[in-house]
Amino acid sequence: DDYQQFLDGFTRQDAKQQLANPVWHVHSGKPPKADMPVTFQLLLTLVSSSNAENAETLWGFIGRYRPGVTPQTHPKLDAMVGYAINYYRDFVAPTKKYRAPDEIERKALAELLAYIDSAPANADAETLQTEVYEIGKRHPFPELRAWFKALYEVLLGQDQGPRFGSFIALYGIPETRALIVSALNGDLVAAEKVQA
Known about the structure:
The protein has 196 residues and is mainly alpha-helical. The protein is 67% helix and 0% strand. It is globular and about 55 Å long.
């Protein structure tokens, strides 16, 4: 993801900034065009939240999020999909731990659920992220970071993740709604106890 971020920024930089950019050195001053529509972190979160153990399921989400993006048009992304599935199986799945929301988190999640129920089906990642951010500000979290940490721990069973608006846009509004309902009902914590 860091490499992609440097690559994405390269064309917007002046000559001095480009020279300081690591991709200039990696590619001897001629980096390739950036063309990675989904970050690896977002893929990992998608695998984790959907429990997708195959590439076809992930490509279904990716194709809906970025129409026209396929394994054939983006072979590097296709390879990353495979890496994300393997990484999830080896390192993420064994450490996932869901927790129930506390009262503040429960109220914020209920507000997020209400927003998702009324959000336009074609809401983009930035619009969704802005609203997630605003919901967090309206509730008495000690800091905004605590709201995002709660989203990851309660909904995804991990302590960090991608920008949540991007996650919703990729995972889907109906799927995110179902995930929040499952968390509020205690189903995610209960399912983890059954698996243990």
